[in-house]
Amino acid sequence: MSPFQFAFRPRLIEDLHSYSRARFLRDTVAGLTVGVVALPLSMALAIASGVKPEAGIFTAIIAGFLISALGGSRVQIGGPAGAFIVIIYGIIERYGLANLLISTIFAGVLLFLMGLLRMGSLIRFIPVPIVIGFTNGIAVLIALSQMKDFLGLKIAKMPADFFAQIKLLGLHAHSFDTTTLILALASLILMLMWPKLFAVKIAGVIHAELDARIRSQIWKKNTHGAILILSALPGPVLVLILGTTVVSLLDLPVETIGSKFGGIPQGLPQLSLPVFSWSLVKQLFAPTLTIAMLGAIESLLCARVADNLTDDRHDPNQELMAQGIANVVTPFFGGLPATGTIARTVTNIRSGATSPVAGIVCSLTILVTILIAAPLAKNVPLASLAAILLIVAYNMGEWREFVRLRQFSMNYRAIMLGTFLLTVVVDLTVAIEVGLMLACVFFIYRISSLTTVEPIPSARLGAALPPGVIAYSIFGSLFFGAVDKLERLIDPKTVHCKVMILELNQLINIDTTGLDVLEALRKLLHKQGGQLILCGLSRQPLSIIRRSGFYDAVGAENCVESLVLAIERARAISQRSVRTS
Fold this sequence. Notes:
Layout: H1 11-16, H2 21-48, H3 53-70, E1 78-79, H4 85-95, H5 97-116, H6 120-123, H7 128-145, H8 147-151, H9 162-171, H10 178-197, E2 201-202, E3 205-206, H11 212-219, H12 222-232, H13 235-250, H14 257-261, H15 278-283, H16 285-310, H17 316-329, E4 339-340, H18 342-350, H19 357-373, H20 382-396, H21 400-403, H22 410-425, H23 428-450, E5 452-455, H24 458-461, E6 469-478, E7 499-510, H25 512-527, E8 531-535, H26 539-548, H27 550-554, E9 559-560, H28 563-580
Parallel strand pairs: 6-7, 7-8, 8-9
Antiparallel strand pairs: 1-4, 2-3, 5-6
């Protein structure tokens, strides 16, 4: 397929061709499960981003539906993501909510264009230390941003800057609320311990691996059936239910969704157009680019994780186009930037999802839930939501990589730690830019260090070269970062010969800078009455040498296939020179 040929084929269309009732039942169960998990997470992510909880809910409904229906992955779940919390919070603080919506729309356009231009494969190859660095940095910032609600501090609004947050938390540390802290700690401990409480073995088989026949037998026993029901209930959902129940029954004096936001609306999201002006667009270039790049990286990273768990392969370009459409549409309904979410996608896979239908059912589950149970959300405690986000931050970070740093090279450490620190202290855009710059610099240094220019040993020459003839072999890549290896060959004080042979059969690549150095060498030899001979040119160097005209300048007779022919040519030139003199 041509790289510019438009192709828009959602994975849903392919899966529906061989769809069955059994698959629909599995997708429905998976969608219901993920929908239950996604609801509290969507509210928590929205509140942490500095907006009302319904913004996260509407994002999960609309963006989640579009990403599943139009995407290139079979099981990926889209919606608001923890990685966007810091970005959204900073954009709102600096530019306002209306401008965040505009940035998200333009970011959606960029994402669609990336997929249209088939750039999905390129984005997937962002260096691993950069991804780990900014992911861990975002996790730290998410955890820090939740300290206010976790401790019940009397802070009107948290700033976006890291050091300002630390200072403000320190100044108000004395104002913590005991009831809020106890509720938050109880929520956190319950989520950590809940999966372990039911990690039991029944008839010598681990519960998570029970087949359908054993499960059906266990369901007949009330005790074991209750265990299965409880163990299937996700920790965040349990915390949300218990926290809300405790606050309602005991009338605890803690901050809730109702006390801070007045609850969530019981109805469908309303279409609204954000205020648009070209003067604002000029200011929003940086946040737009940040949202687009982070959305692309996160969605394709999530899709790769899903591929590894399902032995499948997603279409990265179709996925980017779906992400783009979702991010263009969602802001018109007050939604946030959306991308693929690893935690919800993994839950979807483990719940038995087989197609994008599961993601569609997930969105519909959230929609039906808010239409029926929206009034109950007013007593959801922010302390419990903060505990949920602390778990999210912990799970999204790859903390073991810090321990394993000693196993990697200094280049890897510099890129990862640099990206991590810049994400925490400055912002994600700068972190990725500097991380990519460092990765490029280290890559250039590494490749240039592999490039060598050495005299060809006499054992390979077979016989002594004629007087005035020297031969070198170039290995590696002759590009702008390695041309210094040829500097001694173009020094008129040290180079005095009649013929110079360059063996290039191990030269895999040459750029225009390397070609300029070869041209300088040719001119120096010509000025001294000498001749340059090239031998063993591989495909790429030969192609650029021909296209640049350097091949004709050297002469076709001086560009030979092997070292043997080059030596014969050098002997002929040397003998002719002797006769002439």
